[in-house]
Amino acid sequence: xxxxxxxxxxxxxxxxxxxxxxxxxRALELGATGIETDVxxxxxxxxxxxxxxxxxxxxxxxxxxxxxxxxxxxTLDAGSWFHADFAGEPIPSLEMLFNLxxxxxxxxxxELKNGIVPYKGMEEKIIQVIREWNMEQQVVLSSFxxxxxxxxxxxxxxxxxxxxxxxxxxRPYDYAAKLxxxxxxxxxxxxxxxxxxxxxxxxxxxxxxxVNDPGDMExxxxxxxxxxxxxxxxxxxxxxxxxxxxxNIGIK
Length: 252
Hints:
By secondary structure, the protein is an alpha/beta fold. It is 34% helix and 17% strand. It starts with a strand and ends with a helix. InterPro entries: GP_PDE_dom (IPR030395), PLC-like_Pdiesterase_TIM-brl (IPR017946). This is Glycerophosphodiester phosphodiesterase.
């Protein structure tokens, strides 16, 4: 069985508040080989890890992320919404996550959340921080904003990009090649085995999202994907271990 990257979606977000350091740390404990996170920008240009453009759902406050300074965002409670046990868990910076995984055999999928809020200079800032931390080989930049990914590729041809999309695309591997992307990150219902195979023939990997049902995980593996984004990295790790064990028994 080929190795499949176990990408913890927003960290171990089934058991911890998403996009927090405790979620990222727990993901590694549960067997994740990669972490996916969402990046936005504070009013003073810092890169912060939060999914929604507004703070209502996970930030314990009103207003837009873009309107608050980094120091203010760091005072907010990003844990209580999930469970009282996580009260006071702060919104982390991208640098804090880099510090956790730098030098480890962990893939870091950074999603640029710049489709609704057009953060000026986000691409340049992210690449600057990646370079400062020597994370070029560990990071993959993804986004639903494909124009932003093209901009990233023009600034930093050596940093991998991956195209996020919800609906089925015609020959997505050709589209990815045209944009010089090294990965396709489709919604799980937009995955087709023949397209996974065709993409890999062009050196383009397929990592579907967000796959939490064990049956769906099995289906994705049967389609030959190279990675899976999931809120349940431990479940995926267990399925992969069972598959490897069965394959080894079969060989014997």
